[in-house]
Amino acid sequence: MVTKIIADSAADLTADHINGVPFVSVPLTMEIDGKRWVDDDELNLPAFLAALKATHQQAISSCPNIKDWLNAFTGGDEIYVVTITSKLSGSYNAANQAAANYLEDHPDANIHVFDSASTSSQMQLILEYIAELVNQDCPFDEIVAKTEDYLKQSKLLFSLKELDNLANNGRVKPAIAKLAKLLGLYMIGTAADGEFQLLAKVRSEKRSQRALLKEMIASGYKGGKVRINHVQATAAANNLQKLILEQYPGAKVVIGPCRGLCSFYAENGGLMVGFEK
After folding, report:
1. CB–CB of 22/127 below 8 Å?
2. Whether the predicted pLDDT of 183 surpasses 80
3. Which one of 4, 38, 61, 168 counts the least CB within 10 Å of its CB?
4. pTM tops 0.90, yes or no
5. pLDDT of residue 194 exceeding 80
6. How far apart are CA 196 and CA 205, in angstroms?
7. Residue 100: pLDDT band with limits 50, 70, 90
8. Distance CA 128, CA 11 (A)
9. Which of 29, 12, 31, 45 is nearest to 232 (CA)?
10. Angle, to 10 degrees, between the axis of helix 91-105 and the axis of helix 66-73?
11. What average pLDDT does the structure give for the chain?
12. How many CA atoms lie within 13 A of 74 on its CB side?
C-alpha cells in the first residue's frame, strides 16, 4: 500500500518526505505584469519578490486545478490532503473534485481532503501530525478523526509589515494598508473561521514580536510546537524564537522561509507563526 501526504504550496514545504512519509507539494501560481510564476521548488524567490515590489498593476494568484491534484494522487492508495483555507482559495474545492474523480478509477483507495482554514506554518504542523499518525500505523479513519481534532488545537498568527497585495486582492481594506504604510505599523492578525482577522497594530518590529507571543499565550499556547515562516525576515524570526524559548525553554521552535504564495500575501518582513495550543 502506498501512502501519500499532499498539500498545496501554501504549506511552504518542498521536501519529498515528511518524517519518512512520501509528500507531494501541488503548486499555486501567481501572475505579475503578465508573467506567470509557479510556486514550486524552482521558483526564484528573490526575483519574484522584486517583480512583486516593482509592479504597479494588480498581481493575482491561482489555485491548482483538478488535473494538478490528480497528478499528485497518482499511485496512492491512502491519501491525505491539506489545503489552504477554502475561504480564500478554490484549492480545497478543486482537491475534492479531483478526489472524487480519482476514486471513480481507484475505488479501493482512501482519500481525505482537510480544509486547514489557514495557511503556511499551521499547515506544516497539520502535515507533520498526519505523518506521525501514519508512522504509528493508525488506521485511515482514525487518522482523519484525530487530524480534524488537531485542526482545532493548532492556530496561526501573523505579523505583516506590508499590506499592498492583501489590499489589492480584497483581503484587507485599502485604507488600512495605507495607514500601516504611512505610520510604519506592523499588523498582528490571525486566521479566524478561515479568514484573515486583524488583532492589533504596533509601531516597531520588536513590539510586533512581543505582541505575537502575547497573542499566542492568550490563544492557549503552553510550550508546544511552533513553526515560524518568514519573508526575508530572518532576524525577526530569530528574535521571536528567542522570546518564546525564554518563556518556554522546552518548546520546539523551527524557522523556515515562506514560499511564493505566502510571500505574495505576507510580503517583505512578514512572519507566519503556527503553534499548538
Report:
1. no
2. no
3. 38
4. yes
5. no
6. 20
7. very high
8. 11
9. 45
10. 50
11. 93
12. 7
Amino acid at 36: R
Backbone angles phi, psi at 199, to 5 degrees: -110, -35
| pLDDT of 124 above 70 | yes
> What integer is the mean pLDDT of 102-115?
98
Pairwise CA distance, residues 194 & 199, whole Å:
15
226, 253 contact by CB (below 8 A)? yes
Segment 39-60 shows an average pLDDT of: 92
Distances (CA, A) of 35 to 51, 194, 200, 261: 10, 29, 35, 15
521552535: which residue's cell? 253
**pLDDT at position 169:** 65
